[in-house]
Design goal:
single chain; 569 residues; five-stranded antiparallel sheet; four-stranded mixed sheet; 20% strand
Length: 569
């Protein structure tokens, strides 16, 4: 075979793989063949061969292989090496090889979406990191604030404690010194919280009684102290203000309390009630000194109490104590039947048949005694039919007493009160119960005087006459108190007699039903100008059912009713 140069021949061969296309142009002299094969990965190849150079390759793209062969007469194959993104030029023939990349729109969209997702993840990570940083900063600031707050609190507390310790009144650390003058001074150092309670200065009465050679009896809840000569005594019940001095009821300014085997009472009781001792209080030095009074010879005077037991004399008739406005005596041939008011028959939830004769006595004239400032009782008047009141408050006080008919009628009223559901404990911890009933002339005198002293102590500018006038608006002078009749009772469910009892449901039942049992509300709110006594929702007076019903229907108080029946004789 020979090689000859004849006219050039151009051949076009193409092959495609992986979505790629290729184009080959071959020219040679004689019988030469030019093949251009392989174009992949989105690349295009073009090759132009001239007679002077057998193979020209131009390949653009990534990962492209192109093989060009030249056929000779002997059939030899000459491989041609092709590298991506290279261009080989033949200066002799001026032929250029090149590749052009064409992008698929779907692939572009997928790539953009992936880039966008990657960017969002990055931004999200950055946001999370920023939030975490802010939280850490906030926590750090909170810890700093908390530390500063605790530090300030500690400093302020320390300043307060230091200031408190430097004040004149030291309610936690200070002490009182009690000095008992019993021939040889005896000192008793007492912590502040034992010496002062509720703003009141207290004294260990058991200790005082021992230094005064008083005997003591009791069961641990009730203390009774008896003077050395055995003539007088005082009885305390722990936790109450009610005491009994020579059998007379007294109320202290604050309740007693117990520490170990000793009872503590307000010091003002000792000052106000005891004779034969002297009490000096030095608040600046916190010292209380108790000494015995002595006579001219220097001998100690006997210890006694200002309140004396009432003399028990023969009772006087009620007619002797009546004023001109009292009820008529049944012997004059007239009685309250002239009012022409029929008393109905009442029905009760409880069976009160055995109490009927007491609630509705045949002759009620003796129970219409009028006692007030214009109609006083003799100081020696004592009813002769006093009996114990069943419903006396169970707080350690002695059984209260009333006249027989009044006490039994009151018992019936309590039975019906409780049957109607008003047996629950009130604010005092007790249900409605009797706090006070019969009082002797002496007891009323002591009580009235204690109120006068209290008014003068609270307002030193008052004269005694002015203080007595104020006291008379809420407490009767001795001889003018209904309690001396044995026909009335103070009853409520509070710790002491207060007008707030009028807001209790039990009061509403009592004021609406008491007349059925022969009782009246003695000092109504709308009759103060007539009775001259302030409203007392706790004070109930027995007059018998007939009179009580008529007063209820006529809207009268006792003063009005007595005048009314006197005019209708």
């Amino acid at each position: 075979m020979g090689i000859g140069f004849s006219s050039n021949r151009r051949g076009n061969n193409s092959s495609s793989g992986n979505n790629n296309g290729s184009r080959g142009n071959n020219g040679s002299g004689g019988s030469n063949n030019i093949n251009n094969v392989n174009n992949i990965n989105n690349n295009s190849v073009r090759a132009d061969n001239s007679a002077s150079r057998n193979v020209i390759n131009n390949n653009r793209g990534n990962g492209v292989n192109a093989n060009n062969t030249r056929n000779s007469g002997r059939g030899r194959v000459i491989p041609a090496r092709v590298s991506g993104n290279n261009t080989n030029r033949n200066n002799n023939s001026g032929v250029t090889a090149y590749n052009r990349a064409v992008e698929d729109p779907n692939m572009v969209a997928i790539r953009d979406e992936l880039l966008r997702a990657q960017m969002e993840r990055k931004m999200s990570s950055q946001r999370i990191a920023r939030r975490a940083a802010r939280r850490e900063t906030l926590y750090a600031r909170l810890w700093v604030f908390f530390f500063i707050f605790i530090l300030i609190l500690v400093i302020v507390t320390a300043v307060i404690l230091v200031s408190f310790r430097n004040t004149d009144v030291q309610e936690t650390d200070d002490e009182y010194v009690y000095v008992y003058g019993t021939g040889k001074d005896e000192k008793d150092i007492v912590p502040f919280d034992s010496a002062v309670r509720n703003g009141k200065l207290y004294i260990n009465y058991s200790k005082l009684a021992r230094t005064l050679d008083m005997a003591v009896t009791g069961d641990g809840n009730v203390f009774r102290f008896i003077t050395k000569d055995g003539s007088e005594d005082v009885k305390f019940t722990v936790g109450t203000t009610v005491i009994y001095v020579n059998s007379n009821e007294w109320r202290m300014s604050s309740p007693s309390y117990r520490v170990g085997d000793d009872i503590w009472v307000p010091l003002d009781f000792v000052i106000d009630s005891m004779i034969g001792i002297k009490v000096d209080v030095d608040e600046k030095e916190r010292t209380i000194t108790i000494t015995r009074d002595t006579d001219e010879a220097g001998d100690a005077l006997p210890v006694a109490f200002k309140m004396k037991e009432a003399d028990t004399l023969a009772p006087i008739t009620e007619d002797e104590s009546y004023g001109d406005t009292t009820a008529p005596d049944s012997t004059d041939g007239t009685d309250t039947e002239q009012t022409d008011i029929d008393v109905p028959v009442f029905e009760f939830k409880a069976d009160l048949s055995e109490y009927e004769k007491y609630m509705n006595p045949d002759d009620d004239s003796e129970y219409l005694i009028l006692v007030n400032a214009d109609n006083p009782l003799d100081k020696n008047y004592v009813p002769d039919d006093l009996v114990d009141v069943v419903n006396t408050r169970a707080d350690g006080r002695n059984k209260q007493k009333m006249r027989l008919y009044a006490a039994k009628a009151l018992e019936a009223m309590f039975i019906e009160l409780f049957a109607n559901g008003y047996d629950k404990k009130g604010p005092s911890g007790y249900p409605v119960s009797v706090m006070s009933a019969y009082r002797s002339y002496a007891t009323q005198a002591s009580l009235f005087n204690s109120y006068v002293e209290r008014e003068m102590a609270s307002n030193p500018s008052l004269t005694r006459a002015e203080a007595e006038a104020i006291t008379e608006t809420y407490s009767a002078r001795p001889g003018t108190s209904e309690h001396q009749t044995g026909l009335c009772a103070d009853l409520h469910n509070l710790s002491s007699a207060m007008q707030s009892f009028a807001r209790q449901d039990a009061y509403k039942w009592l004021v609406d039903n008491c007349y059925k049992f022969g009782f009246i509300l003695r000092y109504p709110e709308d009759k103060v100008d007539i009775t001259k006594i302030t409203f007392e929702p706790w004070h109930y007076r027995f007059v018998g059912r007939k009179a009580a019903y008529e007063m209820h229907e006529l809207g009268m108080c006792l003063e009005e009713y007595v005048e009314y029946i006197n005019q209708n004789r």
